């Protein structure tokens, strides 16, 4: 179904997410759960409306509710009343499907494939549960399942290749999501930016290939509150193991040390693989 070959940055498909239209109904979250056959998670009390509290091996899309204290003035015919309240900003969140996904470059067994449309997909049958994908991901997306393998949003590649929209896009009642070609998504996002909205996803670090396929837009007020909390300006993961090995000389090794060094060498190779393209781009 998929193969590891990154489409060009202007090729494939993308989704523009207009947060100003989101009402927090969670229809997208439920549609994702149902279409992908993921089991329901037990709900828990938390400080916010977000439930589950984070992405999960069985929850590939979660609507995060960000709450901010605000002061408002209510005006009446002969009086004004100042009140303190809370503004809630819902953010439907899933894998952003990077143009050159670091998780795919990091996987030592090639278990992460990329479709011609740009969908980044973990093949469970090939995943060995090493967790390198999570280490490489600047958005903290892949999650370990009870079977030891890692899972995340597939961009509904099965639906896309059958001529359908992703399940979350199809079910949204307020048209938060615009599913289209990467070129058209870029144009739409630029138009929203010209209207004064902030846009995330078009001009990013080379570590992710310069852009992602889930592009977020929001009014300046919402973006200033939400974007710093969820979307790093420079999406990049450093690797402490690689840095610790640079310039280190070891005179003698036991058999156990050989195996340890071999494991570190694999980690170093993985780090080189994930950062080689981004270093050339920046």
Task: Explain the overall architecture.
With 282 residues, the chain is α+β, with helices and mostly antiparallel strands. It has two domains: 13-69 and 87-230, Alpha-Beta Plaits, CATH 3.30.70; 240-281, no CATH class. Helices cover 30% and strands 20% of the residues. It contains nine helices and ten strands. It has helices spanning 27-35, 102-106, 132-136, 157-160, 167-171, 182-194, 220-230, 240-245, 255-281, and strands at 13-18, 62-75, 80-93, 112-114, 120-122, 143-144, 150-151, 177-181, 198-200, 214-218. A hairpin with a 4-residue loop joins strand 2 and strand 3 (80-93). The model is unreliable at 240-259 (pLDDT under 50).
Secondary-structure map with pairings?
Blueprint: E1 13-18, H1 27-35, E2 62-75, E3 80-93, H2 102-106, E4 112-114, E5 120-122, H3 132-136, E6 143-144, E7 150-151, H4 157-160, H5 167-171, E8 177-181, H6 182-194, E9 198-200, E10 214-218, H7 220-230, H8 240-245, H9 255-281
Parallel strand pairs: 1-10
Antiparallel strand pairs: 1-8, 2-3, 4-5, 6-7, 9-10
**How many whole angstroms does the radius of gyration measure?**
21 Å
CATH topology of the largest domain: Alpha-Beta Plaits
Domain count, please report it. Answer: 2
CATH class call of the largest domain: Alpha Beta
Shape: globular
Main sheet overview? 4 strands, mixed
Low-confidence stretches: 240-259
CATH architecture of the largest domain: 2-Layer Sandwich
Identify the strand order in the major beta sheet.
8-1-10-9
The fraction of residues assigned to DSSP E strands is: 15-25%
Distance between the termini: 32 Å
Helix coverage percent: 25-40%
């Amino acid at each position: 179904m998929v193969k590891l070959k990154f489409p060009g940055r202007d090729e494939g498909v993308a989704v523009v997410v207009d947060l100003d239209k989101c009402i927090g109904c969670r229809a997208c979250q439920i549609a994702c759960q149902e279409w992908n056959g993921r089991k329901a998670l037990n709900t828990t009390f938390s400080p916010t409306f977000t439930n589950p509290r984070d992405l999960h091996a069985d929850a590939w899309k979660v609507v995060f509710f960000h709450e901010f204290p605000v002061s408002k003035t209510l005006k009446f015919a002969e009086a004004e009343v100042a009140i303190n309240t809370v503004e809630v900003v819902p953010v439907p969140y899933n894998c952003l499907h990077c143009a050159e996904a670091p998780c795919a470059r990091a996987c030592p067994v090639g278990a992460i494939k990329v479709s011609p449309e740009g969908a980044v997909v973990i093949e469970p049958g090939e995943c060995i549960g090493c967790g390198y994908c999570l280490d490489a991901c600047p958005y903290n997306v892949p999650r370990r399942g009870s079977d030891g393998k890692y899972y995340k949003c597939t961009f509904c590649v099965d639906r896309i290749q059958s001529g359908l929209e992703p399940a979350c896009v199809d079910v949204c009642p307020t048209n938060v999501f615009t599913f289209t070609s990467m070129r058209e998504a870029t144009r739409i996002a630029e138009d929203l930016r010209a209207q004064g909205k902030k846009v995330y996803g078009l001009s990013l670090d080379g570590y992710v290939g310069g852009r992602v396929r889930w592009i977020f837009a929001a009014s300046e007020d919402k973006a200033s509150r939400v974007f710093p909390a969820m979307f790093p300006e420079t999406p990049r993961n450093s690797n402490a193991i690689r840095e610790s090995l640079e310039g280190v000389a070891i005179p003698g090794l036991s058999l156990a040390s050989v195996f340890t060094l071999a494991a570190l060498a694999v980690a170093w190779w993985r780090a080189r693989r994930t950062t080689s393209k981004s270093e050339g781009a920046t």
